[in-house]
Amino acid sequence: MSPVARAETTARPTPAGDRLGADFYARPVLEVARDLVGCVLVHRGVGGLIVETEAYHESEPACHAYRGPTPRAKTLFDEPGTAYVYFSYGMHTLLNAVAEPAGIGAAVLIRAIEPVWGVEEMRNRRGRTALRDLCSGPAKLTQALAVDLSFNRGSLIEGPIEIRTYPRPRDEKAIASTTRIGISNATELPWRFHLKGNAHISA
DNA sequence: CATGGGATTGACT
DNA sequence: GTCAATCCCATGC
Predict the structure, then answer these.
(1) Which residues sit opposite A193 in a β-bridge?
(2) How confident is the model at residue A54 (pLDDT cuts 50, 70, 90)?
(3) Which of residues 74-93 of A touch strand B (CB under 7 A)?
(4) Which of A39, A41, A128, A153 is most buried, by CB atoms within 10 Å?
(5) Nearest nucleotide to A87 by CA–C1' distance?
(6) b/e per residue, A190-200, with b = 16+ CB within 10 A?
(7) Separation of alpha carbons A138 and A136, rounded Å
(8) What is the pLDDT of residue A14?
(9) Is 70 exceeded by the pLDDT of residue A128?
(10) According to the model, what pLDDT value does residue A171 have?
(11) How far apart are CA A76 and CA A70, in angstroms?
(12) Which nucleotide is nearest to A182 (CA to C1')?
């Protein structure tokens, strides 16, 4: 049975697989971004499979850390595995996983997940919408998973927001890299990663 | 302190 | 396809 079909018929099974630790996040941000595709993101039992990510690094001007550890960007320099949550367009919160060793400003934006666990709760938060619209964008998934600004600087390794491996062999060839979405600087870098053909990506 | 711009979304032409 | 909503924060005077 597919994960989605299972979600419709089963009450919140605990996602199997190991929770990712500091060693996973403390690597080059491009590796972390690619490897997060296919992993599980859940908040108190509600979540799904990560299908789209983007990498950001202090060395390029699209990254909030480009101008150093300002009040907003200081989270990006925290311990690997920290959640960086920020407010955008006056109404949306976006979730990132801080990567690279502490002191280096870098993070992976979680842009989309395929809903699997707690789909009904997600619908309650997002309103009546097609499954493909539930979490197919960085602000959609934070709304569906009830992730707000209070989670900024929290731990993805120990906190209520969890990222786990998914216990199924992953086909590396199924992951495509393209340019990032919605930015006006460093638009040429192919630092966006997504599962080819997945119905729940944002683009 | 005033100003301008978003790592977006949903409604509408 | 276009466009407004809405507010934190980075910047500059």
Answers:
(1) A53, A177
(2) very high
(3) 76, 84, 87-92
(4) A41
(5) C8
(6) ebbbbbeebeb
(7) 7
(8) 65
(9) yes
(10) 82
(11) 10
(12) B7
Measured in Å, how far apart are chain A's first and last C-alpha atoms?
A: 27
Quote the CA–CA distance of A28 and A106 in Å, as a whole number: 9
Nucleotides of B under 7 A from a protein CB: 5-10
Token couple for A174: 């199924």
How many CB atoms neighbour CB A143 within 10 A?
18
What integer pLDDT is reported at residue A45 of this predicted model? Answer: 96
Could you give the count of Cα atoms lying within 13 Å of A116 in the half-sphere of its Cβ?
24
Determine the pLDDT at residue A199: 96
Kindly state the tokens that stand for A100: 């690279």
C6: residue with closest CA to C1': A90
Residue A108 CA and nucleotide C12 C1' are separated, in Å, by 30
Binned at pLDDT 50, 70 and 90, residue A165 comes out as: very high
CA–C1' gap, A139 and B5, in angstroms: 18
pLDDT at residue A153 is higher than 90: yes
Q: Which two tokens stand for residue A124?
A: 């309650």
Sequential DSSP letters for A109-133: EEEEEEEEE-HHHHHHHH-S--HHH
Q: Which residue has the tokens 């941000």?
A: A29
Mean pLDDT, range A103-126, rounded to an integer: 97
Cα radius of gyration rounded to whole Å, chain A: 16
